[in-house]
Amino acid sequence: MTLSVLSVASEAYPLVKTGGLADVVGALPAALAPHGIATTTLLPGYPALAKAVEGAKVVHRWPDLLGVEARLLATRLGEHPLLVLDAPKLFARPDAGLYDHPDDWRRFAALSRAAADLASGAVPSHRFDLLHAHDWQAAMAPAYLRFAPGSGPAAKSVTTVHNIAFQGRFDVAIFPELGLPQTAFSVDGVEYYGGVGYLKAGLEAADAITTVSPTYAQEIRDGRFGMGLEGLVSARRDRLYGIVNGIDPAVWNPETDAALPAPYSARALGRRIRNKRAVESVFGLEPGDGPLFTVVSRLTWQKGMDVLSWALDELVAGGGRLALLGSGDAALEAAFVSAAARHPGRIGVRIGYDEALSHLLQGGADAILIPSRFEPCGLTQLYGLAYGCVPVVARTGGLADTVIDANEAALAAGVATGFQFGDVSWDALTATLTRVMALYAQPERWCQLQKNGMRADWSWATSGARYANLYRSLVEQT
User: Fold this and answer.
1) Is 439 helix (H, G, I), strand (E, B) or coil?
2) How far apart are CA 186 and CA 239, in angstroms?
3) What is the mean pLDDT of residues 204-225?
4) Glycosyl transferase family domain: from which residue to which, for each copy (predicted)?
């Protein structure tokens, strides 16, 4: 039996992307299709979607969706159905980013309200067995299903936590505007420390909670990682599932990647040298045979970028070079730019994000640095594994689940795929960099490390099956 699932999120690749959430939401429909799951994605009607909705069919109208007029447009996301919430007063802001607007509470409550309407029969032409809400921007949808569903039977629901640090917390003053009964403002509803918590509401109301790796599912039950929600998550641990993200081999494949001057495979790793030279050219680095590290990341405390900035002199002194692509905290941006000025030809920095350049870095650098203090899943280490760009990661969340440390036992057994370290500190990071450079000086062992990562299957095949099994188990419950 085919199940019909509505996946609601604030972004999806390739239409609109600010981070890994978009990659996951964009890849899920194809990952689930082989398992009998028909997935329809619901997105806000940003200006970036204008081309995608040209000629789209209007399938529903809301005269008053939390105070604004809105339409539901039906089109396609690749081979799969796409619904777009066309509400210009909320989303038609061409000169602004997706988030951090004063009325984000209304914008994403409206998205969630529309999703709940769809998942409870408000649009007869679009029926769903299950609603899958991603992160705080969609997490109110299960709460609407629970407290104020549409006219039909409410679908089952799943809330996925991609990063529990982002919660969507708002002042109590917004509650009367949400269209919820007063009973919803309670400890087992949307109330959160006297205000309204969107992610909290979704975790409370959903039939199941998933995170994007098994280790992160355990970590967020701990006060060090749960960001104030650890008690709720622990109380619902029987409904908590950790399913590691996958990557889309149609997008991330070194054998077919158009962003690489020299596509290659695990059987032809020698071709990577052309990509390495291209990275050196783009970043103004001195050509050389020493290890070339890369960073493709938000430059934030969470990502451990402060610790990395302290270790750059040691990285260069040990014979390494660095090509960094990212943006974030102004102080960290300045620290990396300063390091590049201090080490011309050894450190190159590009502030911002460039999708094609991120592919080139994975295909040309020798190792990718991911010293995150917490990392729900992480995708860059999966891209690194697929591209033979050896991941150097902190032992947390999905990083711990996906990278096998190159200790002597793992090297002897031929299973190592990268490097892990426990404490996100200068001492631990620099010690690990020393390990990396020592193994890089042994070409045969380094090559084996690359091949091990490239031969592992990090596609969505396994994770897609796990999601499908979870969906079916929920729908079959009475």
Assistant:
1) helix
2) 21
3) 97
4) 286-446
- Spatial separation of the C-alpha atoms in residues 467 and 311, rounded to whole Å: 40
Would you state the pLDDT for residue 478?
64
CB-count exposure of residue 171 (10 Å: 0-12, 13-18, 19+) = exposed
- Could you read off the pLDDT of 328-369 as tens digits, one per residue? 999 999 999 999 999 999 999 999 999 999 999 999 999 999
pLDDT at site 288: 87
Mean pLDDT calculated for residue range 249-255: 94
pLDDT (0 to 100) of residue 65: 98
The CATH code for residues 266-455 is: 3.40.50.2000
CA distance linking residue 234 with residue 377, whole number of Å = 19
Tell me the binding residues: 17
Residue 345 structure tokens: 């030809």
Copy the structure tokens of residue 346: 């050894």
The helix (H) or strand (E) run that includes residue 130 is: strand 130-134
**Considering the chain, what is the average pLDDT of its residues?**
96
Residue 309 CB partners (closer than 8 Å, separation 6+): 332, 335, 336, 339
**Domain locations in the chain?**
3-246+461-476, 266-455
Task: Give the CATH number of domain 3-246+461-476.
Answer: 3.40.50.2000
| Binding residue positions for ADP-alpha-D-glucose | 17
Q: Which two tokens stand for residue 386?
A: 């697929």
Residue 95 has pLDDT above 80, yes or no: no
Chain-centre distance for alpha carbon 106: 24
Type of residue numbered 74: A
Partners of residue 44 on adjacent β-strands: 85
